[in-house]
Amino acid sequence: MNDKKKAYVKIFALGGLDEVGKNMYVIEYDEDILVIDAGVKFPGPDMPGVDYIIPNIRYLIEQAHRVRAIVLTHAHEDHIGGLPFVLKQIQVPLYGAKLTLGFVKAKIEEHGLLHRTKMHVIDERSEVTFGALTVTFFRTHHSIPDSLGVVVHTPHGNIVHTGDFKFDLTPVDQPIDWARMARIGQEGVLALLADSTNSERPGYTPSEQTVGMSIRETFFKCKGRILFATFASNVHRLQQVVDAAEACNRKIAIIGRSMERAFRIGQELGYIRSLKNVLIDVHRIDNYPAQSVVIVCTGSQGEPNAALTRIATGAHKHVAIYPDDTVIFSSSPIPGNAPSVNRSIDRLLRAGAEVISGSILDIHASGHGCREDLKLMLTLMKPTYFMPIHGEHRMLRLHAHIAEQIGVPPQHVFVLDNGQTLNVSNRLARTGRPVHAGEIMVKGSSINEWESAVMEERRLLADSGVMIVNMVVDCARNKVLAGPDVVTRGFIYVREAGEMLGHVARLLRRTVARLEKRDRFVRAQWEEAITQTLTSYAQTTMGRSPLIMPVIVHVDEERRDRREKVGSGG
User: Fold this and answer.
1) What end-to-end distance do the CA atoms of the chain give, in Å?
2) Quick one: 480 and 446 in the same domain?
């Protein structure tokens, strides 16, 4: 390490601030850049045709020679789902716990990236050095095993990233190392980056053990088949379902590609007990009495293509809803997903199922800490500076207020947006020059930074339809040869729009007449004038803004005439 210490450590997020999803955080010192997590966010109903949203990593691509590693806190999609798309753009080694890399391996193998990606297994005892930065870890409790907090040791002090966490006093796996966390705080934390997802909820987050007991009691009460929907990556919950099914003498059928993969990886790595005597094929569920079957499936968030959603709509080829079926939603809706979840519940109820969700029974416990958990983390870490992460803006603000309540000076608390930087040293902290950040839309394997413009066109089409103007123009003489003809779709019912379309045609002819008086034909000017004319008319008369598409075919009549004369020998 150089004796001359750089003035500050730079901290920023490329995703995860003002949102729940696509988490990606960066610690930068001198020539070394360390990335923590690379997640996705799932699109809302206002984003048709989009599969995923990932962070814009233009900054990391430009600085690829300085990016030392991506360290992963746990295996949830909002923390690892963006990796295949990131690794297609930059090659960088991955560091994560055993189960985390198990999920990552399956994911990047599907994208053909496994052979070129170096992966290193770490745990809470590991220590890894990247240039001037040394990284250690501590175990946390979350809704998936092998969740880790990250300590980045810099020349100015320690930066702690909590990962997603809660404090579970009766955990279903290993207990938290309280002494290790207290020691981190005693050694000094220059800056703390902490999960804010549940900052709106008072108290402590319930223990996962209470959910296990509720699942077992519910299974015993159900008379018919049970359809159990949860996150595929919630490995603790999957084991609890196996335990409850065995206690009730029920067989388990698994539906959904991601759910099948989670069970396979969980069993291979020893996090889920063998299902040898419990598992049945989904094709054979009708061969068993209804009271002896549990169907574990995806779709707890109302995802359009998930197994439970297809079952609810009658579109699943193997499973339909029968009388006396009980459907259990063992998850809370991600912010923005509540309408989709409620729609699934309504469809299931119409089909004759009984539905149990977290709002009805204690069938789910969040993996994120509530306010008292957040206070406890702040008390243990004793940070000099605090930056709330992983949450929508109101969540970040509430977490900032919690930090101030327990004694962090307000001027030491920084609520930032993606791309804003925090420069910290052992003497001061202040915001710095922002870096490029934003959203990238993903459809299939296509990554498009310009997709936001396409999304705006899709919104216009969905909201107000389209008006297409067709015409043929002699570009040499700047004269219209045919048209303008107007075609509309999704804007107005054409059979009852004769008078309106006639008025539009007259407006266009006046616009075209002005354009024909210009010295020469310039396509961009014609398109702009036509678009302005129709946009103004639609907004003034109907209060709507359809997508305007001028389609101008231009020909050179003089050149064509000359060719014809030459061809005829004239």
Assistant:
1) 85
2) no
